[in-house]
Design goal:
By secondary structure, the protein is mainly beta. About 5% of the residues lie in helices and about 55% in strands. The longest helix is centred in the N-terminal third of the chain and has 27 residues.
Amino acid sequence: MKLIKNQIKRQPSLNSGRLFFLLLTLFLGTDLFAQSYSLSGNVIDSSTKKNVTFAIIIVQEAGLVVNAPQGKYYVSLPRSGTYTVKVQSTGLQSVTTSIVVSGNTLQDFYLSPFISKGSAIVIRGERDVQKISRHTMTVKQIKEVPASFGDSLNALTSLPSVSRPFGIFGPLVIRGADDAVNGYYIDDIPIFNPMHFGGFHSVINNDLIREIDLYSSAYPSQFSNSQGAIININTIDEVEKRGGNVDVGLISASVLLKEPLTETNNVDGKEKIENKGYIIAGGRVGYLTIFIPLFYEYVLDQNLEQVVEYYDYQFKAKYKLDEQNFLTFLSFGSKDKLKLIYNEDAMEEGDDPLWEDMVWKQNQQSHNVGLYYTFTTGKKFSNTLMSYGAMTTYYRWADVPKSQVAWARDLGTTSRPFIFGVKDKLDFEWWENKAKLKAGVEFNYYRFNIDGKMVLLRKMSEGNFDPSDPDLVRIIELDDTIENYTFVYFVENKFVFGPLSLVPGLHSEYLKRTDKMVIDPRGAATLSLKSGTTLGVAGGYYSHFIQTNGNYFNHTPMLAGIDYLDPQRAIHRSLSIEQKFGDYTVKLEGFNNEFWDLMVEEEWADSSGNIKNFRNCAEIKSRGFELMGKVNDEGDKGLFGWLSYTYTNSRFKSNMFTDSYGDQWLHTWFEQVHVLKAVAGYTSGSHTLSARFQFNSSLPYTPIISSTLDTTYSGPTDRYVPEYGTPHSKTLPFEHRLDLRYSYRTIYKWGFVSWYFEIINVYNYRTKEYRYDYRYPYEEGKNPRIKKTDDIAILPNFGVEAKF
């Protein structure tokens, strides 16, 4: 009876509850009482066991795409059933799986970092390449490394063995090799101008790049006609939802838009959306001409006489014919303009007066296109046939009005090194998990056009350069089109036997003009032990037909038509040991690279009395080692960074008849013996603070040992022509620089917005320079002298990035 009494007392409240739910039903509809179906959970980085910053969840049967800010997601589904779910997060491998949903289902996804094995510095990599010398940079590092302007190629300078001799500007010098013989590729298309003037940005949008492999030396057999390093850029190859990126900074703005191509099919009476490909379009415009001159005028009280203007564009499209056949189209290009007026205001006191009122103009533009057909059966076999065109145009013009430099009046050239080619590459795993064959053939057609005036050196002038010397140079009028053809093949096979990996390879090239063929054996081996130790060795021969080098052609066009020059040769050797200690990795690698038969510009006569302008006679030896410690398993939160030291000894011997130092091993002009780099950052919540510090040897210089009065000069002051001593025999004091960067990211359902601010050279360190005053004679300790540069070296950069 007690139980019945209690039930009777509770009856009014139960009736009130029914009335409440009845009202909800009337206003909200009947779905309130329907069975709900959902999928929710976390997206986790398997290496850190932490939630990712941002992910995308794709439910194919429902046609839904949901963002997962901070790695948390929720998907409301219309009905129960089996759903195909794909999860993506930048820098991690995608996961596709089938999930049975019968109610409110909880499901966490673990994404693994890309597996990248390379003799290379790999940025965002996922391919199976040789393991020795591998350094990995994540997307986060690229964005957050100070002084990189958020650019992938600039970010490479924070890694061991990569130097930029002119600070934050200029070319990349890697392991003591001449930057002109580095090879740059974007999706297998060779390019000669990978960066805009000054080196602020690469010519391709950073958000289009999937990964960059920087092979500092000892690279594998697939790469052609290079001797130094290889920078191999691969673009993104998957778009699941409409989106893009916008970045507006102090010196430029960029945008990238992505659109998937879909097709709706009826499968078993149900509509299914299939991804058939994508379209990507992007570009960048630089506006240095707007802000930088104002900064100089109102802040520094100076007139800036040189400003760079540039833009670039990219377009990529892919279409899936069926599950095994794909077509891809890629086009990208850039344009740069620079004008320098070297008038009296621009000259520093004591500069050589012969250069006063000099005007220099330089423009460059490139347009590149590639068409790819890929057949694949999955992991076992794939083949890609591509055709490409890489068309670059350079314009240079200079005028020096001084009568003593008459040879430099109205000098101008327009060069067009165009390359067209066909390549076919295949991957074939013929022994499951044990052996994989890579092979390829290619034909390249080089059409180099030049018109204008070219300056040829008659003799070695590096030690004693006097522009008023009438016997120093010879001017040649040019109007010519030069054609060259190369045939290339390569083959390599990777064998895996437990912890041991062996990759023997062979690369061969034939140049029709010289009727010469090179055969270069290459290879690599790694041994990975259970203790976390990895031993590696790699090396091989590397040849370069200088007649096909667009960089040399722009400066010395006659080279392309020379048939008596042999290919330049090199041998690379690398040896490394890597040890993992929990969350940290320490790696030591040594290298020993030798270059010979290098081309020099020198007038000489052969045994028949024929005048020649070039010779294969110079040599370079570059040896050293790099030591690096870094944080492993970096997540989206917490500490990231690395510390490295590189020692490089790079020597050059010209072996030239007209060089008084031709039989001596001299320091190369780009040698930096000691380089210490430290990059560290920390992310907490929406905040990321990072720093970069570098301490390095300065570049060598050639000392002045005496001077002679120029009796032909009729200016307002005297002019004393310097006489130089042993080239590159002296160095300035060590240099150092600290850069800081702060960014703040806000996550939204549609993406994120990130504000960033960085200061390059925080404490305004000014480098020292070796200055000679042409108005006065040589006097030891007084003229020339070592002094600090007068420019303000600190540089701010700020902007905002949005991803949607």
